[in-house]
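Quick one: structure for this chain?
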Amino acid sequence: MTVSVISALTFTLGTVSTGNAAPKPDESQLRAELTTLNKKVDKLIEAYAAKRESLKKAQDAEGTAKTDLRKAEEAYAEAEQRVDSIAQLSYQSNTGDLPSLLFSTDLSGAVIMEQFAAQESASLQGFARSRDLRKQAADRASLLTKQITEEAGAVEVQRKEAEKVIGDIEKKLDALVPTGSGRRADGTWSPQLPTGADNITDRTRIMRGAVQNRFPLPYEIGCYRAENDGGEHPLGRACDFMMSTGGSMPSAAHVALGDEIAAWAIKNRATLGVKYVIWRQRINSGSGWSSMSDRGSVTANHFDHVHISML
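Got it. Here's what it folds into:
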């Protein structure tokens, strides 16, 4: 099964051209592969979760079976001890040491002893059968637990293999991040004015498009706004990538997405021309995250959106 999954994950990015220079992979092909692989990973995660649930039930059944087996073994040991005791008393009766309370006018002590021995022997056989059946149940439960554990492990291996290929594709996509316009030969950036109907700079527009291409954005993007708040929005040099709506806190999945976008923007700041990133009441200008003062709301503290400002 693992081999088939690995085969399904294999893809061709093109052959090496002459001059020892590998052509850049086609972005649309990479994104198609990424979409396919993400769907495969989602299915593998679902399969793994199902296996884990089955494993929990199997482990519970194994625990119950082993408890029943232990009780059956204890009951058998007690019955076996009683039979041994009766046999010992029966032996003593032949020497005249049997307690007198075992004698009656109707039955001799020996007859009573034989009756007890027969009853206990029958009980012992029943306990033995019960013990054997419980041992068989415990063995089956242990085998099932082992089998499901192995299956869950195989699914987990497949998931990791798929995620490794996804990581490789994402690295190739990151290599395709466009260079922001207006970058000088010395690495500095020329000033830009907002243009177009969206009132943002060309460099900001390139960054916005790169984020849109790279990430599955769940909500709207807000860039230009006329309010002069001292930031880059009125200058057309900033965009907010919303992770929730209505000023609410994002879900755990969208917080994780925001973390990815923020980290990606910082990683590619020199290529895109990013000035700084604000996310979850922290700011990063390329030298690490710093805490910001409380501005009084989820939105003002950038808990519901990733803010990217451009040079």
